[in-house]
Every structure is written in C-alpha cells, then in structure tokens.
Amino acid sequence: MTELRALSVPVRPLQDASLRPLPWRRMAWVTWRQHRFALTGVAAVLGALAVYLLIVGHRLHHAYAAASACHPASSIACEELVGSFNGTGHLLATSYALQALPALIGAFVGAPLLARELETGTFRYAWTQGFGPWRWTLAKLIALAVVLAAAAGALSALLTWYYQPYLAAGNHTLSLSEVSPLAGTVFDLRGVALAAWTLAAFAIGGLAGVLIRRVLPAILATLAAYAGLALATGLFLRRHYLTALLTSNPNVPASAWITRQWGTKAGKLAFTGQPPKSLLEALCPPSAVGPLGPRGKPSPGTLAQCISRHGYALWTSYQPAGRFWTFQWIEGGWLLALSMLLIATTVWLVRRRRGLTRRERTDGRRRPRRMHTHGVPGFPDPTSSGQVTHEMLAGAGINVHQPAVLQDADACVSVTHGVLTREAVARLAAGD
Amino acid sequence: MNVLEASGLGKRYGGTWALRECSLAIPAGHVVALVGPNGAGKSTLLNLAAGLTAPSAGVVTVLGGQRPGSPAALDGLAFVAQDTPLYKNLSAADMLHMTRNLNRRFDQASAEARLAELGIPLKRKTGGMSGGQHAQLALTLALARRPQLLVLDEPMAMLDPLARHDFMASVMTAVADDGVSVLLSSHALAELERVADYLILMSRGRVQVAGEVDDLLAGHRILTGPAADAAGYSARPVVHVRRAEAQAHLLVRATAEDPLPAGWEAHPLGLEELALAYLREPGAAALPGPARGRDDEPSQVGR
C-alpha cells in the first residue's frame, strides 16, 4: 500500500482558540444529579450516627457529672455511679469501629466516581461535552471532596463533644475511664483528623477508580489502600510527629500517649513493656508492695518503687496530651497534601487520556447462538449487520454444503439479533 | 475546511496496532461512511477524533486544525459512541439539562420538540428506554449542541430495521437543515448506500479506500467475461475476481470510457458491492492522490 503524502488543506488559524471555558458552577447541578443517591446515603448514615451520639453522649455527660461530683469517692453509691459511667458508650471509646467511616465514604463515593463512568462507557458521553474531560473531573472531585470533608468535620465536632468526659484530667484518680487524646482510638476522630482522613479516602477512591476502571475492584482496592495507610500511620508514623519525651518517673500522666516502655538494670535492657509478671511475683509480691490503691490494686507508682528498690529503672517514652493540636495539624496537613496530590494525579490521568479507552471487543457479543447450539459449534460470528462471508466460513473450516449446516440454517430463521436469516445462509450455500 | 485530518496516525493497545499509518483528509459537508470488518480500527479512529484517547503515533486534527479534546474541538464536535452510553438512572429531561449545562450551545426547544415527535416521554429514565429510543435520545442530545461535525460510532448496531431507518432519517434531516457534517461507522452497508456520499474503507488498522462515493462508483466497473480470459486481463487494475463456472466477474478500476476487451461486458456497481469487494481484498487500495484532478484516474493502486 502506498502512503498518502500530502494533506490538501493547511491548518487554519484557530478562529476560536480564545473560547472561554464554561463556568465551574455549571457542574454543581451535574454533580448533584449524578451523585445525589451516594450523597443522600452518606447523609443518612452520618445523620443516624449523629442522633445515636447525641443520645448516648447526653447520658455519658450526665453519668460523668454525677460520678465526678460524688462524695465520698469510696462510698458504694459513688462506685455504682463510676461503674455506670464506665459502662456507658464504652464501646466507642475503646474500639476502632468509627475509624472505618472515612474508608467506607472513600470506597462507596470516591471509587465509583470515575470507575462507573469507565466501566459503563458513559465517559464517552461525559468527556466529549464542551465542558472538557479534565475540568469535569476536577470539578466533581473538588465539589464532592469539600462536601464530604465538611460532613466529616461536622461529625467530628460532635465526636469531640462526645469524648470529652473520657479526656478530663483526673479521671484516673477517680477510677473513671480515661483515654489519652492522642490514643489511636480517638485521635483521628476529633479535631481536623476525621475530615482529613475522609478527604484522603475519597481521593484514594478517585484514583483507584481511574486506574482500575471497574467499580467493585476499585472499591476493594480503596478499602485495602486506606486500611494500609491508616494502620501504618497509627502504628509507626504518628508517634514520630514530634520527638517523644522520655522519663524514668513512674508517674506518667494518664492523659499521655505512652509509645514505649522498658526497664533497665545496671544500664542494661532488662525487659520491654511492662515488668514481666514473673519478675513482679518474685520481687514484689502483694505483701511487699505496701499500701494498696483505691480499688484494691497496687498503683503503677508503688510497683515501680518496689522494683526500683531492686535496682531496676522503668523508662517510659511518651507524647504528652498537650501536643494534641500540634499532632492534629501535622496529620491534617500531610493528609491534605496527599489528597491534593492524588486528586491532581487523577485529573492528570484523565487529561492525558492515554489508556482510558481499550480496544473494542464486539465480536463475542452477537453470537449466532442457534448455529452454535444446533450442531455447528465453529460457526463464525457474523458482523453486526449479520454478514457472514465465505472467507469467514472458510476460516472456520465450515463447508456450507454440509447437510448439517443447511439443516441448521433452516432453524436459524431468526438468530439472536434477527439479521442472519435463512435466506442469507441459503445464499451463502448457493455460492452467491 | 477539513472536518478530519490524520497524518501517519497510529494507535497501539499493548503490543497490537489498532490503527496504523492512517493518513486522511475528509472535507466538510459530507456524510462519511466509515466501513470495515471488526477490529479494522474504526472505533479507534473515531475515539481519537473525539479526543477520548491519545495517538501513539502521528497527528490527528478535527474541524480545520483543532486538536481533539481542545475547547474548540469539544465545542464543534458531537460524538455518539458505540452503544450510545447514557446515565441509566437519569431521565430524558435530566439528560437534556445535563447536556445543556455542559455545553456552550444547546437548543432546548428543538430537542424537546424532537423527543415529543419521537414519542419519548421526558420523564422516562434512559435505562427504561428501548434501544431505538436510547439511540434517538443520544442523537437528540448531540444534535441539540448544534455541532459542525457529528461523529457516530456504529449507532445502528443494536437497532432493529425500523429503528435504523428512523435513526438515519433523523441524521439526514439534520444534515439537510443544519448542514452538519457526519462521520459514521457502520456495518450496515445497505443503510449507508442510501445516505453516505463519502466512503472510507478500513481494514487491519489501515485505510484502504477513501473518496467521494460518486467518484468511486464512476471509477469502478464490473467486467463479465469468459473465465479462461480472466487471468489475462491487465488493461486496468483488478480489485477482485469472482468466478462462477465458465464466467468471471472482475471488479476493475475503470470508467465507462475505458475500452473493453472483446467478449466482455461492463456493468456499473453499487456502494455495497464495491465495499464488499474491497473488504474481500484487504491488499487492494483506492486512495485519493495529492494534487490530482477529479477526472483523473485514481492514482494509488496497490495489490
């Protein structure tokens, strides 16, 4: 084949290169219309959770007020009040259930955002409109990210209020549940962290959608990626935001986030974590410890004093509760930066448009099922207009003069899409 | 203005070229039929023109030099993709609203009138529409944008014969009323014969035939003569030979004025016949040459 060399028409100057982009606000209706079910779903879940938090939170605050004001603390009445506070809404303070919230929002709103367009082919509609593909993507991602982050921010304001009783200083001395504000169970639900994690989960979902292009795998990938990131942050990263404080004083405040504990004897590492039970039993049996704490147990301070008498030093590395907001801004900051990077990457992938379309595979779709099922298994698929050529038949090794083929052609008056008719096959058989 | 220009255009998916060394210039004001077997690269070419994918090699421009996907190209080119994807959970009215929001121009009145004429209720969800209604809605959305070029990728593949007829009637009305240029890929040769005045035939990722239908038909003849003499015929380039017992039918690149060997008869042929002959001979080509007059013989012939 010879190549065509010259193109006849010169490229004209762009008469409307200065076309102004369409205003961003036009995407507001489009985004709402397409994602109203997802957004209503998120609003319903968050709303139900908010109602639950309000009801339980109210009881919690009441129980706390009653327990902390009770005198004398050792009376049976007071112990009952303490027990009632410790039992109220305890689950939310000590479990990671709410940490799944950003992951679910990211997976069910973020991942399908582009994956569904790519899976169902509607991107061919959306990205050929005048608004332009990358601006369409950016507008949607930013609008939804802002809305979801705001919703998560509102919920975390409620959670901040909810957790207040657990965070009050001095709980410990009253035997009330106390949680460090930096502890993994509550840190990322308060302040700016919940909004930031929701944003990050959504951005991960968006990118997973454009990379994977199928809804379900994108959702699973988002959940996996989010879980990995959240675990890595909680277990390894967060404790290094600021250099931990180190003390050999056993009376570390209960509000501190203890990141590491270990014991030394004569300058050598003796144990990590709490002193081992065997050591305590050998050196500090309850009789040797001295006066018991308020609830019949030796306090950590007295235990430490006991083992220090035997030459051990107990070291604690911790993050003080006062660093809460510094930690919040550090975590919120890098999550925001990460989200921006992920969103920018997603938009860039859409803008670059390489690899978004795949080679069309239409052949398998319109199979002449009757011919296949009526004893001519190798019968070639016709073109979409129902054409079967001699070449196609020859390629499939089928002789149209075979009695079986003619017989089946008779049964093939109406094949799946109704175009391959008996006449057509008969014509083929007749050699026309 | 050329509605589409391609120069050395290629697109590779993984290791295989879906489109290779494609060079084309399609003038405005035509209904262009893009024909070829499955996997010939038709959809790839149209996706490249619509800016949905980027070329692996070469250059493609639309609407007189605009880069596909640029604001001007998006503004003037309306693309109706294969299987006409629309949002299933949105109603026809929602789709009109959305398309209006996403474009500079949108003729709401004419779109609503067209849907009313077709009997498509505005409140019906696109997921609940028949194939014909779905395709008509997609076409309505595209036409209401008042494009200069309408690109249709196998719009009729899923339609029954009646819906096909109605669909093409709608396209032809738009051509007559608005002068929109149409680039249309399809396997339905019979349908195309009625509407197309420009043919591009592709196979195996290359352009095989390109030209105005009238010129192509005037430049080809079917010669019927004794089968024994068929091999000796070489006066004009032969595209395809079909033997039926003692007779041979040669599809040759010749005009009505070309001399005929003794004992042979010449017949004119139709678009479908022409297209089928070339589809059977992927090695043959008929492309417009540079700087050739309209009455000149087609210059690029290879076998």
Précis, in short:
The complex is a heterodimer of chains A (432) and B (303). Chain A is mostly helical and 432 residues long.
Could you please describe the fold and organization of this structure?
- The complex is a heterodimer of chains A (432) and B (303).
- Chain A is mainly α.
- Chain A has three domains: 26-242 and 324-352, no CATH class; 257-319, no CATH class; 369-429, no CATH class.
- In chain A, 56% of the residues lie in helices and 6% in strands.
- Chain A is built from 16 helices and four strands.
- In chain A, a hairpin with a 2-residue loop joins strand 2 and strand 3 (268-272).
- Mean pLDDT of chain A is 80; it is low at 1-15, 360-370 and 410-421.
- Chain B has helices at 42-50, 71-76, 92-101, 108-118, 131-144, 161-178, 189-195, 213-218, 227-230, 271-280; strands at residues 2-13, 16-27, 31-35, 57-62, 77-80, 149-153, 181-185, 198-203, 206-212, 221-226, 238-244, 247-252, 265-267.
- Chain B has a six-stranded mixed β-sheet with strand order 5-6-7-3-8-9, with helices on both faces. Chain B has a four-stranded antiparallel β-sheet with strand order 11-12-10-13. A three-stranded antiparallel β-sheet of chain B has the order 2-1-4, with helices on one face.
- In chain B, 31% of the residues lie in helices and 28% in strands.
- Chain B folds into two domains: 2-210, Rossmann fold; 219-280.
- In chain B, helix 4 runs antiparallel to helix 5 and helix 5 (131-144) runs parallel beside helix 6.
- The two termini of chain B are 32 Å apart.
- With 303 residues, chain B is an alpha/beta fold.
- Classes of the chains: A mainly alpha (432), B alpha/beta (303).
